[in-house]
Amino acid sequence: MLGGHLSDEPSSELPHGEPPIRVMAIHALEYCERLFYLEEVEEIREADDRVYAGRKLHEERVPKLDDDSRELRSFEVSSDELGLFGKVDAARVRDGGWIAYEHKKGRCRRTKDKSKTPGVWPSDRLQVAAYAMLLEVQISKPVTEGRVRYHQDNVTVSVPIDQSARADVVAAVARMRALRRSSNRPPVTDNEKLCRRCSLRVVCLPEEERLASQPPQERAKARLFPARREKRTLHITSVPANVSRSNRSLVVEVDGDKKRMPIEQVDSVLLYGGAQITSQAVQMCAWENVSVQWISGGGRVLGTLAPPGRVRQRIRQFEALRDANFCLKLARQTVNAKVQFQLQYLLRGTRGNESARSSITKDIELIKDAITKLNKDGDQETLDRLRGFEGIAAKAYFGSFSALLNERVPESLLMTKRTKHPPRDRLNCLLSFGYSLIFGLVNRSLLAVGLDPAFGYFHQPRSAAPPLVMDVMEIFRTLLWEMPLVGSLNRRQWDEDADFEIRPGHVWLSDEGRKKAIGLFEKRLSESYQHPYTGQSLEYGRMVELEIRLLEKEWTGCPNLFGQLRIR
Ligand code: SF4
Q1: Which label site among 72, 296, 343, 482 has the fewest CB atoms less than 10 Å from its CB?
Q2: Residue 325: helix, strand or coil by DSSP?
Q3: Whose CA is nearest to atom 4 of ligand 1?
Q4: Residue 4: pLDDT over 50
């Protein structure tokens, strides 16, 4: 059923400058108004297996236009008056009249009685009616029938193009125009079954929104967000190395050795140092929404291939993050999450080790005190005060960091104090490189989700670093890097000579060390963690995208889901 909370009288007039809408969008509208909005207004499209299967069907089974004037196949139609455009699968003359045909891969609808008579689904009826009306305009002849062919059932169902069908198409166009003018996403559908088959469930996160209205003890686990990364990140660390394109694959060439990787299996290409990539490969990555990042040998992100801007999403982001109180609330959530991680990790990492625990008691008390103060809801709260508490906690945390390392870790891998630009010892070098990996991951995830990394809520635009990346990565530092790094140090996985390059005033990772750090990070991304809010167990590599989508929900009507991650 079409919804009706936005008033817009059906009209056959297309307002000046308003572009027509593709007929396929009617399908999304009938399925779920939110799906229509995400696809047609925000231009978010994720082709899942069913969508690909449908496309393939159209490509394979519908031949191209031929010269037979009594049969037309796969041709474009449009009408400014109707406000629609699209591609008709086929049109044929039967009994002297033209009929529009629509091909569907799936099954037809059946009556619930014993006869199980085949019928059309409401969205298919509207779609074929729209094509019939466009066909009329195209051929200047009346079209009174449409037919939908359901290939899985091998059944063709007739649809009368009567006044009722025409009125429904006009109403659908009016509704789509009204939604297109709105700057708010429609709510998630009440029909949970629709979400299970929806291609945009990963973007929409309907379960997470529904959970927000349920008491914690009654919450079921969210299941629709994919728990695992299905694609791989290509880290090109060797020099010389070249990435090129061959058909639908990326070809990585190192020292004459070539490896092909189908583009469907890649989520990002990261080029370190002087690694090269061809324009053709970059173009394919842009087309397939595969992120490309150029990274210096020291781990600094130099640039990211940005997908075309999601204008509505960004406008909503800008509007929300212009509100100082709203930014303060998000900043508190973020700092709270970060400092809680630091406290919990120090407690966990020294559990059962009395001497280590007693050596850091003072720092633990300082961090606890910072948490208490930053959670006090005072009128005096400012971003600067939050920064102050964050700074106190960070100083105490890194002051106690060595207590997390066991006696097998050599002196050369310990830290006297945190030094960043540049790192002056091996441990600082490892910390900085890992943070830069998180920075790159958050940066490309923000772009993939459709947010502008340059517009944040906590960090100020004082350097080239995009503030929103700096904001979001705060909640991942301990979880994604400090914890696995400490584990690897305690297992003596680092070679104090071969893995580092010691220069006057700074320490870099060697090629070997860089590869090792990337391997450790990727391994961490493939480990699982149960999200404390959604109850879902998912890989850390999926967690970053989920948190960014939950962040966006802070300003799209479902707040307080972001930044709830904690160490168990
Ligand atoms: S996931 Fe559900 S609510 Fe979201 S767009 Fe799809 S059908 Fe609609």
Answers
A1: 296
A2: helix
A3: 204
A4: no
Q: Are strands 143-150 and 155-160 parallel, antiparallel or unpaired?
A: antiparallel
Question: What is the C-alpha separation between 244 and 339, in angstroms, rounded?
Answer: 43
User: Is residue 199 within 6 Å of ligand 1 at its C-beta?
Assistant: no
Q: Is the shortest distance between the CB of 206 and ligand 1 below 6 Å?
A: yes
Q: How long is the chain? A: 568
Q: Report yes or no: 190 and 209 within 8 Å, Cβ to Cβ.
A: no
Pairs from 249-258 (Cβ < 8 Å, separation ≥ 24) = 250/281, 250/284, 250/285
Task: Please calculate the CA angle 340-343-349 and round it to the nearest 5 degrees.
Answer: 130
CATH fold, domain 235-295, is: Ribosomal Protein L15; Chain: K; domain 2 (3.100.10)
The pair phi, psi for residue 338, each rounded to 5°, is: -60, -45
Q: What is the residue type of 76?
A: E
User: For the whole model, what pTM was predicted?
Assistant: 0.83
Helix (H, G, I), strand (E, B) or coil at 189: coil
pLDDT computed for residue 53 by the predictor: 44
Q: If you measure from the C-alpha of residue 558 to the centroid of ligand 1, how many angstroms do you get, rounded to a whole number?
A: 15
Fold designation for 311-553: Four Helix Bundle (Hemerythrin (Met), subunit A) (1.20.120)
Give the integer Cα–Cα distance in Å for 554 and 458: 15
User: Which residue, among 535, 565, 528, 559, has the nearest Cα to 547 in the 3D structure?
Assistant: 565
> Can you tell me the distance from the alpha carbon of 109 to that of 157, in angstroms, rounded to the nearest whole number?
10
296-324: pLDDT as tens digits? 877 888 999 987 767 889 999 999 999 99
Residue 107 token pair: 């099954």
Please identify, by atom number, the ligand 1 atom nearest to the C-alpha of residue 204.
Answer: 4
Domain ranges for the chain = 21-184, 235-295, 311-553
CB-count exposure of residue 118 (10 Å: 0-12, 13-18, 19+) = middle
> Which H, E and C letters describe 76-114, residue by residue?
EEEECCCCEEEEEEEEEEECCEEEEEEEECCCCEECCCC
Please tell me what DSSP assigns to residue 261: E
Tokens 């449908």, residue? 54
What's the CA gap between 195 and 32, in Å, rounded? 9
- Name the closest-CA residue to atom 2, ligand 1: 195
Q: Read off the pLDDT band of 54 (50, 70, 90).
A: very low
Third-level CATH fold of 21-184: Lambda Exonuclease; Chain A (3.90.320)
Query: What would the pLDDT profile of 323-366 be if each residue is shown by its tens digit?
Result: 999 999 999 999 999 999 999 999 999 998 899 999 999 999 99
149: three-class secondary structure by DSSP: strand
Cα 449 to middle of ligand 1, angstroms: 16
DSSP 401: G
555 has a pLDDT exceeding 50: yes
